[in-house]
Each structure stands twice: as structure tokens, then as C-alpha cells.
Fold:
Amino acid sequence: MSTVQALADTGLQGRNLLRIADLTPEEIGTILSVADGLKRSRATDQLPLLRGKTLGMLFEKPSLRTRVSFEVGMTQLGGHAMVAHGPDFMVGSRETPEDVARVLSRYVDAIVVRTHAHEPLERFAAAATVPVVNGLSAAAHPCQALADLLTIRERFGTLAGLRVAYVGDGRNNVAASLAEAALLCGVSFSIGCPPSHRPGDEFLTHLERLGRPQGAHVRAFTSVQRAVRDADVVYTDVWTSMGEEHLTERNAAALLPYRVTPALMALAAKHALFMHCLPAHREEEVSDAVIDGPQSVVFDQAENRLHVQKALLLALLTELKGMPA
Ligand code: CP
Ligand code: NVA
Structure:
């Protein structure tokens, strides 16, 4: 498995992944290449590099893809995953995020956490002595963004020079991580959203800085048509994220013009992909005709969560120096 050898030099061992901007473009490139190698080889041919390792997973919110893909990934690499659900372990009344992190660090080799607010996750990660991976917070969803880049790269054969148009809630976790990932990898990023859902100027400046060395740019448009015109990828997510259910009606009213329909897709490049992190609210943010249509790669994205997270776990958890190439 020579691709795995590439991880030995990344220096990712023992690190946390809370936001995509924690990674360099080179580190992202290595993770994607290893994920690609793992995807091409049958799971039964892969070395049990995580034998004896346990991944702890704490979920304050529901999950299908994140939970199952991490668990299956650990099994395929010879390790084990345990999952705890519920509000008590993190910000609940029982104990502080720091104490939970210190205790869990004595039992497991890495921890995936899905939280509501991002700040307790930062506190948790600062106190943990094993790698902590953000399995989605209100601010970021870095594992999704890595899987999305892998999906785009396998379709176009490259990333640099492409343009992703993200339409809908431009301030949510998926948009933020995808934007960081895209710009770091030389993919320009257009956001189509109403002013109420536009990322703050400070975040847009941060994104522009990330993209500058690669010649990639970010732009936010109120006009969904302008955002999508000639884009290589059209991406959307639910209008209301988990934990913001009280905003459902307000979001639906503001975001209705940003639904991805066949007419909107027709404005993008002919070869454009449609992407969505799932779960989707069909006939809200996207028409059935688009998500079930020939341009849609949503299930490739879901599958790629598995491959990219296996690569990430190997990078964070294994001492690969000296492994046979
Ligand atoms: N896309 C994603 O993270 O899905 P889950 O919420 O089901 O994990
Ligand atoms: N923005 C969505 C993503 C779900 C994977 C949410 O946070 O609910």
C-alpha cells in the first residue's frame, strides 16, 4: 500500500482537525491521494494499521453518514469504534468539556465529536491528549469538505482552476468548510445567498487570504443566477441546520429563490456537477429532478466520507515511518 507511505511525512500524527484551515494545501493533497488509493484497493486487501486502536465518537446531534463511515472505517483498518449519544457528556450539567476530554483521552486513541456550538469543542480539544476530529459543529464540517474535494477531483481529474457555486445558507458549517477547502486547493468559490445568510466580511477576508497563493477567489452574490453562471459545481445544503429549527420558517422564506432547480443548473457549465452533503430536504433546497438527475454526485460524496476519513485516521494515528512501500 505505497500510497499510505505518503502519510508518514505529513506530520499529521497526533494533531486535531477542527477546521479545514488547520490543514495546509499539501496536507489536504496527501489525504486525498491516500483516500484515493484506499478507495481503489479492496478493504480486505488493506493492512490492519489501526489494530488495537479505539475511536471514541460523541454525538450531541443525529448522524447517519459521519457515524457509520467512521465506524466502518475503523473496522476495515483493524480497529474499533464506540459511539455515545446525548447531551450529557459535553456541555450538559454532569461535567465540563475539559473533564470529559481528559477522561476519554485515558481510554481511546482518537475522538470524533459532533457538537452544537463550536466553542466547547475547542475547549474539549485543548484539554484532550489524543487527536480530536470535528464531526460537525455549528461552525465547521471539515470531514465533509475533504470528501467533497475527493469527489470533485475524481470527476475532473484536478482541483485547481475550477469554480464551485454554493447556494443557500452561505453562513452554515458545510459552506464554511467547503469554502476553506476549495480556496486552499485553488478552487474559486461563489456564494449565492440573500444578505441575511451571507458570511460576515471578516470570514470572507479570511477566505480570500486562503485562496490568494493559489490564485483562487471568493465572491458573494445576492443574485443566485450570477453565482451559478458557468460554475463547474453547484452545491447546496439544507436551509435550516440542526439546532436552528426555530428559524425554519424565516429561512424558508428567505431562501426559496435559491432552490436548485433544472433551470438554475442550466446556467452552470454544461459539465457541472450537483453536490449536496445530505441529508437533503427534497423539493425544498433542491428539486428531485436535480438530485436524482445525471449531474448529481451526492452518493459518491457520501461514499467518499468513508475513504477520506480512513486516510485521515491513518494520518492522525499511525507511525508509518519505516513501513514497507
Ligand atoms: N453529511 C453528514 O454529515 O451526514 P450525517 O449528518 O448523517 O452524518
Ligand atoms: N448544515 C447541516 C449539515 C448536516 C450534515 C446541519 O448542520 O444540519
Notes: The chain is about 40% helix and 15% strand. The pocket of phosphoric acid mono(formamide)ester (ligand 1) is lined by residues 63-66, 136, 144, 277-279 (CB under 6 Å). Residues 171 and 200 are 8 Å apart (CA to CA). The chain has a mean pLDDT of 94.
